[in-house]
Structure formats: structure tokens, C-alpha cells
Design goal:
The protein has about 200 residues and is mostly helical. It has nine helices and no strands.
Length: about 200
């Protein structure tokens, strides 16, 4: 069975080995599981999580319908675009992300259904699980391996990236770069489908 490391090694032709010091992780998992058990907290099923999901999806749908059917003046429409953009971010962070981590339910069908919120936002849940669960969580903040620190040279998110004078200003212009992240997701989805890789390091 292929591990995340095997997947990236086969795709990029490079290898990255981790030390086998698993003591911290084992201790952490043991203590978290004990806390949940002792306080009678379920690992996945949480009523407030479902309330949060309903609010985020209702927000998204209401803003979308108002934009589609409202026929408002341009200024109101512009404000609604901002409201809908925030709703998209809310669904992405609070619904799609958690579902594609398998955090919603012990029932795989329900988790899978909610994970389709990725497709609702115009991206691929399958690609997200590869990009985020494998490339990001296995290789967090490692340049060339973690897809989330790839910015096409627009920002410097790791000391291993070559320095450019432009980066002195990135604290000011980063909201503009991050506002394009949806286009990045979609573009990478198409690149994976058409040419088999999203950039030189991720296949």
C-alpha cells in the first residue's frame, strides 16, 4: 500500500525521509483520546458542527440567490458579491475542509455527501484531498513538497525560497494574492486533468 511519502516520491522523483521518533504522536493521541472518553465527547458527531454547517450553507445560498434574482443597483450588487465571497470562504473553511478530513460522521456516506460542498464551490474534492490531506499535512511548510507554500514567486512563505525585494511589501499585498486562491484551485484541477500535474513538484 502506498503511503503519502511514496506517492510524492513516485510523482516528483525525489525522496523525503522522516525520523521514526513517534513517541510524541503516540502520547498526544493517547491523551486526546482519554480526554474525549473521560468527558464523553464524541470524536466526530457534534450537534454544534451541524448547526455551523447549516448556517454556512444557508448564508451561501441566500447570497447566491440574491445575486441571481435580486436585480439590485450596481453598488448593492457589489456589496452582495463581497458577502457571497465571505460565504464561499465560510463553506470552504468550515464545511468542505472538515468533511474532506472525514470529521463529520462515523457514517462514510454522510461525510462523502457533505464533502461534495467542494464541487459546489467549483473545485474538486478528490484533488483537495490530495493537495491538502497528503501534500500539506504530510509535508507541512516544506518548500517543494507542501503545495500550500507554492505562490508562483509572488510571496515568500519559507526561508528556503529565494529572496526578492518585492517581499518587503508582501504584508500589504498578500490579501490580493489570497483573493485569487479560488482561481488557483480551479487552474490546478484542470492542469491535473489535462497534463497530469499541477506544477513541477506535484503530480
Amino acid at each position: 500500500m502506498s503511503t503519502p511519502a511514496n506517492i510524492l516520491e513516485k510523482s516528483s522523483g525525489r525522496s523525503l525521509r522522516f525520523t521514526k521518533q513517534h513517541g510524541f504522536r503516540k502520547t498526544l493521541n493517547k491523551r486526546v483520546n482519554a480526554y474525549l472518553r473521560d468527558n464523553h465527547i464524541p470524536e466526530r458527531i457534534c450537534r454544534l458542527m451541524y448547526v455551523k454547517t447549516a448556517v454556512a450553507l444557508a448564508w451561501w445560498l441566500a447570497a447566491y440567490l440574491l445575486l441571481l434574482l435580486g436585480h439590485f443597483p450596481p453598488l448593492v450588487t457589489l456589496v452582495l458579491c463581497f458577502v457571497w465571497a465571505m460565504a464561499i470562504a465560510s463553506v470552504g473553511f468550515n464545511v468542505m475542509h472538515d468533511a474532506n478530513h472525514g470529521g463529520y460522521s462515523d457514517h462514510p456516506l454522510l461525510t462523502r455527501l457533505i464533502s461534495l460542498s467542494a464541487e459546489m464551490l467549483g473545485m474538486s474534492g478528490f484533488r483537495w484531498r490530495t493537495k491538502h490531506n497528503v501534500w500539506h499535512h504530510t509535508y507541512t511548510n516544506i518548500a517543494g513538497f507542501d503545495d500550500d507554500v507554492e505562490t508562483y514567486g509572488t510571496m515568500r512563505l519559507t526561508p528556503r525560497a529565494p529572496w526578492k525585494p518585492l517581499y518587503k511589501l508582501q504584508a500589504w499585498y498578500f490579501p490580493v494574492v489570497y483573493s485569487m486562491i479560488g482561481f488557483d484551485f480551479i487552474a490546478r484541477d484542470f492542469m491535473m486533468a489535462l497534463v497530469g500535474k499541477s506544477d513541477a513538484n506535484h503530480v
